[in-house]
Amino acid sequence: MIYLIAGLLIFLGLHSVRIVADDWRSAQIARRGEKAWKLGYTAVSLISFGLILWGFHLARQDPIVLWPRIPGMHHIAAPLMVLAFILLAAAYVPRNHLKARFSHPMVLSVKTWALAHLLANNTLADLLLFGGFLIWAVVAYASLRRRDRAAGVAPPAGTTKGTVLTVIIGVIAAILFAHWAHAWLFGVSPF
After folding, report:
1. Which of 7, 43, 92, 123 is deepest in the core (most CB within 10 A)?
2. Which residues contact 11 (CB under 8 A, 6 or more apart)?
3. 134 is in which domain, residue-wise?
């Protein structure tokens, strides 16, 4: 469990720097250069993400069950995961209504992903992993929205074409991930 906790603290802590120490971050970028900052950020992110995966894998070998599984929760988690993939696609597909409305659909995707997995799972490792990401996403989203309002930043207006493309990409990605990649990557089939 220590690897999971360490990975989460480092990964989510690093991804919270802009929330809690934006001036420090700006000073580091000014001092070291944007390229060096991004390289270090990426390296620490990858290492800590690896710790999360390794720690979660180890924790799943001897799970600490916190509550009995609630029947039917995977039926609620499945459409939430489709929504999470649509929101993830919205972060990258230009000029879609979801990005225009919510500004930061990737963070909403993380919220939705975490909530879906908390509903469908019941171990301490699940609570740490998905609960940690859910708390981070709630705080990050509020911070990003405040920063956007203060700076007067708004994403471009969405178009029907962009929105339809977003939904199609998100649904296809969700289907492929659920039916193939989830079991291959994590050893667990959602169905």
Report:
1. 7
2. 45, 48, 49, 51, 52
3. 66-191
Question: Which of 34, 62, 90 is where one domain is finished?
Answer: 62
Global confidence as pTM? 0.90
Element (H, E) at 172: helix 160-176
> For residue 123, which phi and psi values (nearest 5 degrees)?
-110, 165
Q: How far apart are CA 53 and CA 63, in angstroms?
A: 15
Q: What angle do CA 40, 44, 48 make, to 5 degrees?
A: 175
Could you tell me what percent of the chain has a pLDDT over 70? 100
116-149 residue pLDDT tens? 999 999 999 999 999 999 999 999 999 999 999 9
**HSE-up of 84 (CA within 13 Å, CB side)?**
22
Residues 51 and 79 placed together within one structural domain of the fold: no
Residues 74, 56 share a domain = no
- Please, what sign has the CA dihedral across residues 175, 181, 183, 186? negative
pLDDT category at 87 given cuts 50, 70, 90 is very high
Average pLDDT over residues 35-56: 96
The set of residues, in sequence order, having a beta carbon less than 8 Å from that of 110 and lying 6+ positions away, is 84, 133, 134, 136, 137
